[in-house]
Design brief:
The chain has about 425 residues and is an all-beta fold. Helices cover about 0% and strands about 40% of the residues. The radius of gyration is 21 Å and the shape is globular.
């Protein structure tokens, strides 16, 4: 296959919609339903402190589910499939402001380095940039050729990077002091068939390179300053590309790309969790099923979940054995522990939110709506909480929670957002 080439696309005629003097548009206010729980005090279990109801009614759980949640400095930022983006007080669940964006909000949000701007994607109205103080629109980008934005964008300095369902990666000027703010800087084409170029999870910006995987099984590497393919992105024995050979399709890369130190982590539908360092694969761990969604990584542990509901914690520095992959040998990291979500009526409980690491715990949400708080050292679920009612799994739901201070925030298939107080640690059990 010929090597895809990047298209650095200057935009002579700005397509951004600018609002020089942003003003907030008042909207009907959704009233949060606050549980009759006293002011936060030490608790011995996961305790719902407040419930905020979005205006989602829709036709079912797929319509109502909210995307990934972002929290910073006491404010929860989240969109919903009710055409609205919200800023909520993290302590009380009170609505600070909301903005109608005329389309389902389909990605989690990312904030500028100074916290003054929040960016997110929508199903049909492109990318939005809002003022975090009052929700006024700073700029947006949309045209007829852009698909939906389904994965969380990435901010690197004053560049916003947003993968689209049309198989392209878009970069925008996000410098609020620039006269070109909101304009497209470049477009990078994945350049495969439409079925294979979909982006499923968020990418990573590191040292002027943007890394992201897609359904063609490749970890794409794009130079942020130019929009051209980085030389590290080619197919070869040392590349994170899985090709089964023959007429079989490549195994898709449907995990997020994350980093700890100089090490990059991602996973694929060939059941592999991969550490990638210095433009080469350092180790490969083989799970039982395809590994998708979020990956959490620190200096001491890497946590990922497969499609059976298994959650793996790996030691990134201690190797156990060699593994053959595409005619080459790779080492396998030590498995610290493996925990499982609780299947219901013989159906595996697939992780749709997380894993995320906060303090001494790992948090995940399964597609039956159960939140798990797992001891990071021992791999045992210490606490669980049902986030929504009903035994039917929400197979297309995907919403990762967020933690700040002693609270975790989660979205539900009912279109509600929950503020949950974390339990006080109760010693050894």
């Amino acid at each position: 296959m010929p090597e895809p080439t990047a298209t650095a696309t200057p935009t002579p005629e700005p397509t951004a919609t600018l609002t020089p003097e942003p003003t907030a548009t008042p909207l009907p206010t959704s009233t949060p339903t606050v549980t009759p729980t006293p002011s936060p005090v030490p608790v011995s279990d996961l305790t719902v402190r407040w419930v905020f109801e979005t205006k989602s009614t829709g036709t079912g759980p797929v319509r109502a589910i909210v995307p990934d949640i972002t929290v910073q400095d006491g404010t929860v930022y989240v969109g919903s499939k009710d055409n609205t983006f919200y800023a909520l007080d993290a302590t009380t669940g009170r609505e600070i402001w909301s903005r109608n964006v005329h389309s389902d909000v389909t990605t989690g949000a990312v904030l500028s380095d100074d916290g003054s701007t929040v960016f997110f994607g929508t199903a049909s109205e492109g990318i939005y940039a809002l003022n975090t103080e009052n929700g006024s629109k700073l700029w947006d980008y949309n045209n007829d050729n852009v698909g939906s934005f389904d994965v969380r964008p990435t901010i690197e300095g004053n560049v916003l990077i947003a993968p689209s369902s049309d198989g392209r990666i878009y970069a925008f000027d996000a410098d609020p002091e620039s006269e070109n703010v909101g304009q497209r800087l470049w477009t990078f084409p994945a350049d495969r068939s439409k079925e294979l170029r979909q982006f499923r999870e968020s990418g990573l910006a590191y040292r002027d390179i943007f890394y992201i995987g897609n359904d063609d099984g490749t970890l794409h590497a794009v130079t942020i300053s130019t929009g051209f393919r980085n030389s590290a992105d080619h197919r070869g024995n040392q590349m994170p590309y899985y090709d089964p050979g023959g007429d079989a399709e490549p195994e898709a890369l449907k995990s997020a790309v994350v980093r700890s130190g100089n090490d990059i982590y991602f996973a694929n539908d060939a059941n592999e969790i991969i550490q990638y360092t210095g433009n080469r694969i350092k180790w490969v761990y083989e799970a039982r099923r395809p590994v998708r969604g979020e990956i959490a990584a620190t200096e001491d542990v890497v946590v990922a979940a497969d499609r059976s509901g298994a959650i793996y914690a790996l030691n990134p520095d201690l190797m156990e054995a060699e593994k053959k992959r595409d005619r080459d040998l790779y080492v396998t990291p030590e498995l610290l522990w493996r925990e499982y979500t609780d299947s219901q009526e013989g159906v595996d409980a697939i992780v749709i939110g997380g894993p995320i690491i906060a303090g001494d715990y790992v948090f995940v949400i399964d597609h039956f709506g159960v939140l798990y708080m797992i001891d990071l050292d021992r791999g045992k679920a210490r606490y669980t909480l049902d986030l929504w009612h009903g035994a039917s799994p929400c197979r297309l739901c995907k919403s990762s929670p967020a933690v700040e201070a002693d609270m975790i925030f989660a979205g539900t298939q009912d279109g509600t957002i929950l503020g949950i107080q974390l339990p006080e640690y109760i010693g050894d059990e």
